[in-house]
Write a structure and sequence with these properties.
The protein contains 2 helices and 53 strands. The chain is mainly beta and 671 residues long. Strands 31, 34, 35, 36, 39 and 40 form a 6-stranded mixed sheet that branches. A hairpin with a 2-residue loop joins strand 39 and strand 40. It is globular, with a radius of gyration of 27 Å. The N terminus is likely disordered.
C-alpha cells in the first residue's frame, strides 16, 4: 500500500518556503537616476567586465561571456574566481569583436555541451580590412567537470564568417524549440570588396556567404532537412564563402544589417522568434522571423528606403519579396508609445514567460536600447504594436543582452550592461499581496487545475487552522478562497490549512484554462489577491528535503525474478542538519526490476491526450501507473520502472514529462 505525504509534512514545507520568500527582497540596489516602472525592482547581481551575453544551466547557474574571451560562472551567490573557459589567446576583441554569444544544449545534463560565438584570432594581429584577418566562429565545447570547460573539446561548427570591418558581427546564439541552433551574423560594417561602408555596404544582399543573416544548423553542425535553401544551386558554407551566385544552405533568413540579439518565445514552445536589427542612420527595428525571408538591408531600413524617414510604406510601397519589420522607431523621434527619445541602437530582447509577471505583460516582448539606456515593453494587438517604458535612465553603454532566468520560485529579467565597468543586473516583479507557488516544486507562475498550491501574504486568517477530514472544507475559521474567472461562477478552493501568513489549498478542478483571480476572503473582506494563469497541466514533484529540488519524496521497490518485493530507501536524511541525499539503488540482476514511486501534483488532467513520460539522465523509464493518489487530496502518483543500465555512482536527474510540460528535476542514484 502506498503511504501518502502527511499533512504535517506539507505544513513544514510551506513554513520553510515562507521564510525563503521573505528573504528575497533583502538585496535591492538601484542605479542613480534610473526610472523603473512601479511594481518592479532592479538589482545588481554581479560585476564582470565586458559582459556580452548570458545563459542558464539546468541547475540555475549562470554562464556569462566576457568580450575579451572568458566564460564566467555565477553560481547563484558569487562569481567563481576562475573562468570556466578562457579563450583570450584565441580571441580578437578589438572593435565590436570578441566572445559574443552563448547557448546551452537542451541535453546538457547528459552531454555537457555549450555553444559559443567568438571572433577567432587566425592571424598574428587583429587588424581589419583583410579577408585573411579575424573570422567569426561558432563552436561546441564540453564541460568536463562541474565548473570547467576543456578548450580541447572544441568542435568547430561554422567557421570563417568574415569580420572585415571589425564591427557588425552580431553574434547571438539560441536553441529553438525544434532543437536546432540559430546564429545571427552582421554585414561586417565595411564591404569586403571595397564597395562601401555603413549604409553603402551591400554585403547583406549577397547569398554566397554568411554575413547579414540568421543561420540554422543542427547541434552537430549539419543542415536541417527543412532549411529553406537546400535545393539546386545551394552549397554548404560552414568553412567559408562559396562562389557568387550560389546560396548558403545554413541561411535561414537574410537581408539584415547587424542582428545583434534575437529571442524565442517560450510561450509557444520556442517556435516564434523576434530579431532586433541595429539600424544605420535612421531606424531601429524588430523583425518577426520567417523562414527564407529577405528583410531588405541595405536597400531598406525600417519600413523605409535606406536612410529616409519619409520614403516609407505604405506611401512608398515595400518592394516585392522584401519583409518589413513589425516594429520600428526613428532616431529622430520618440520610441512610439513612450516619452523616451535619442534611442539609436537596439540591443537585447526577450519574450515575457506567461504567469510570472503581472498579467498585462503575458505574451509581451521586452527590448533594450544601448544608446538611450532604456528597456521597453512591447505588446501586440492584432497586427499593431505598442511600447511603454519599463526602465529608463541607464545612461549609454547599457542593456546589452536580455534573458529571463530563475529567481527563487519565480523568474526575473536578467540583463548585461557595460556601464559601471560591466554588470549583470536583474529586473524582478515585486511580490504582490498574495504569492502563489506549487506546493511540490516551489515554482511560481502558471498553476494546474486540481493541483496543490500555497499562498503567502499577511492578515490572511485570524489564527492557524487545519482541515481534519475529507472532503476538504472551503472555509477554515473566518477564511475562504474564492477563484474568479470571466464568464464562470465563483468557485471556492478546498483548504488544507490557513494561518495569518499562509494558505494551503487545492485549485478547483472545475477551473478553466486561462486567467483567474485568487482572492483570500477573511471575515467577508478580500484581504489579498493575485492573478494566476490556470492551465491543465503543470507537473511538479514533491521533494524530501522540502525545497522543490533534490531527492524525490517517494519510495522504491526491488521486484525479484520470482515476484518477491523488497522495499528500498530512496533517500537518507541527516538528523542534525535535516539535509537529504539519494540512497544508492541497486540496478537489479537479470529478471529483476527497480521501481520508483513518485508523488507530485498538477499532472492528472489531460494525461490521455498528453501521455506521461519519466526520464532518468535523459533515458526513458517504463511508466506503469499514473493517477490520483486516493489517500491525499490533490496528490498524484507516478510509478516507473527504472531503465538499465544507468550510470552508477553519481546523481542522476529524474523528470516527469506530460506532453510538452516538464516537472522540476529531482535526483536519484544507482549502484
Amino acid at each position: 500500500m502506498v503511504t501518502p505525504l502527511p499533512c504535517c509534512l506539507l505544513h513544514r514545507r510551506f513554513h520553510l518556503l515562507l521564510i525563503a520568500l521573505l528573504a528575497l527582497g533583502a538585496h535591492c540596489h538601484q542605479l542613480h537616476a534610473q526610472v523603473l516602472r512601479q511594481g518592479f525592482a532592479d538589482d545588481l547581481v554581479v560585476r564582470v567586465g565586458g559582459p556580452t551575453a548570458l545563459a542558464f544551466l539546468p541547475d540555475g547557474r549562470m554562464l556569462i561571456t566576457a568580450k575579451g574571451g572568458a566564460l564566467r560562472i555565477w553560481d547563484g551567490q558569487a562569481l567563481l574566481p576562475t573562468p570556466a573557459l578562457d579563450l583570450t589567446a584565441r580571441t580578437c576583441a578589438n572593435s565590436e569583436r570578441g566572445l559574443l554569444g552563448v547557448a546551452v544544449d537542451p541535453g546538457f545534463v547528459r552531454n555537457g555541451f555549450i555553444y559559443l560565438y567568438y571572433t577567432h584570432r587566425n592571424t598574428p594581429t587583429c587588424g581589419s580590412f583583410s579577408l585573411q584577418g579575424p573570422m567569426n566562429r561558432v563552436s561546441r565545447f564540453t564541460f568536463t567537470s562541474a565548473n570547467t570547460v576543456d578548450p580541447a573539446t572544441e568542435l568547430v561548427l561554422v567557421d570563417n564568417i568574415w569580420s572585415y570591418g571589425g564591427n557588425h558581427n552580431a553574434g547571438d546564439l539560441e536553441i529553438g524549440g525544434d532543437g536546432h541552433l540559430y546564429i545571427s551574423t552582421g554585414d561586417g560594417g565595411t564591404d569586403y570588396q571595397g564597395r562601401g561602408a555603413a549604409g553603402a555596404n551591400p554585403a547583406s544582399r549577397e547569398r554566397h556567404h554568411l554575413m547579414g543573416k540568421v543561420l540554422r544548423i543542427t547541434t552537430s553542425g549539419a543542415i536541417p532537412a527543412d532549411n529553406p535553401f537546400t535545393g539546386p544551386g545551394t552549397v554548404r558554407c560552414h568553412q567559408g564563402a562559396a562562389n557568387p551566385g550560389q546560396v548558403c544552405q545554413e541561411t535561414y533568413l537574410w537581408g539584415l544589417r547587424n542582428p545583434f540579439r534575437f529571442a524565442f518565445n517560450p510561450n509557444d514552445g520556442g517556435r516564434q522568434f523576434y530579431i532586433n536589427d541595429v539600424g544605420q542612420a535612421a531606424w531601429e527595428e524588430v523583425n518577426e522571423a520567417i523562414a527564407g525571408a529577405d528583410y531588405g538591408w541595405n536597400t531598406r531600413e525600417g519600413n523605409c528606403v535606406n536612410g529616409s524617414t519619409t520614403q516609407c510604406a505604405p506611401g512608398n510601397p515595400t518592394p516585392g519579396g522584401l519583409t518589413d519589420p513589425i516594429f520600428a522607431y526613428a532616431h529622430s523621434a520618440l520610441v512610439p508609445g513612450t516619452t523616451t527619445g535619442n534611442c539609436r541602437s537596439i540591443t537585447g530582447g526577450a519574450f515575457v514567460p506567461n504567469g510570472y509577471w503581472p498579467a498585462g505583460f503575458d505574451g509581451g516582448y521586452v527590448f533594450s536600447d544601448y544608446i538611450c539606456g532604456a528597456v521597453f515593453s512591447m505588446q501586440r494587438s492584432g497586427q499593431s504594436f505598442t511600447a511603454s517604458e519599463l526602465l529608463t535612465g541607464l545612461d549609454v553603454n547599457s542593456a546589452v543582452h536580455l534573458r529571463f532566468g530563475p529567481f527563487g520560485a519565480t523568474q526575473a529579467l536578467y540583463y548585461t550592461t557595460f556601464a559601471g565597468g560591466g554588470e549583470v543586473r536583474r529586473i524582478r516583479a515585486l511580490a504582490s499581496s498574495l504569492t502563489n507557488v506549487s506546493a511540490a516544486s516551489f515554482d511560481a507562475g502558471p498553476a494546474a487545475r486540481a493541483s496543490i498550491l500555497s499562498g503567502f501574504g499577511s492578515g490572511l486568517a485570524d489564527a492557524p487552522a487545519g482541515a481534519t477530514q475529507t472532503p476538504l472544507p472551503t472555509q477554515l475559521g473566518a477564511t475562504r478562497i474564492d477563484v474568479r474567472q470571466e464568464g464562470q461562477p465563483v468557485r471556492g478552493a478546498p483548504l488544507f490549512f490557513v494561518s495569518p501568513s499562509q494558505v494551503n489549498y487545492q485549485l478547483p478542478s472545475a477551473a478553466v484554462p486561462g486567467r483567474a483571480t485568487v482572492e483570500v476572503v477573511r471575515n467577508g473582506n478580500v484581504v489579498a489577491s493575485e492573478s494566476v494563469l490556470v492551465q491543465d497541466l503543470r507537473p511538479a514533484l514533491f521533494t524530501a528535503n522540502q525545497s522543490g529540488r533534490g531527492v524525490p519524496a517517494g519510495e522504491a521497490l526491488l521486484v525479484r525474478a520470482n515476484g518477491a518485493q523488497e522495499p528500498l530507501p530512496l533517500f537518507v536524511c541527516s538528523g542534525v542538519s535535516g539535509a537529504c541525499a539519494p540512497a544508492p539503488l541497486p540496478q537489479g540482476a537479470a529478471g529483476e526490476s527497480v521501481f520508483v514511486i513518485l508523488y507530485g501534483t498538477g499532472l492528472r488532467i489531460g494525461t490521455a491526450a498528453a501521455p506521461v513520460r519519466v526520464t532518468v539522465d535523459g533515458i526513458d523509464g517504463e511508466v506503469r501507473f499514473v493517477g490520483e493518489q486516493p489517500q491525499f487530496v490533490g496528490l498524484d502518483q507516478v510509478n516507473v520502472r527504472l531503465p538499465k543500465p544507468l550510470p552508477a555512482g553519481r546523481d542522476l536527474e529524474l523528470r516527469v514529462h506530460v506532453g510538452t510540460q516538464v516537472s522540476n528535476p529531482v535526483l536519484i542514484r544507482v549502484q
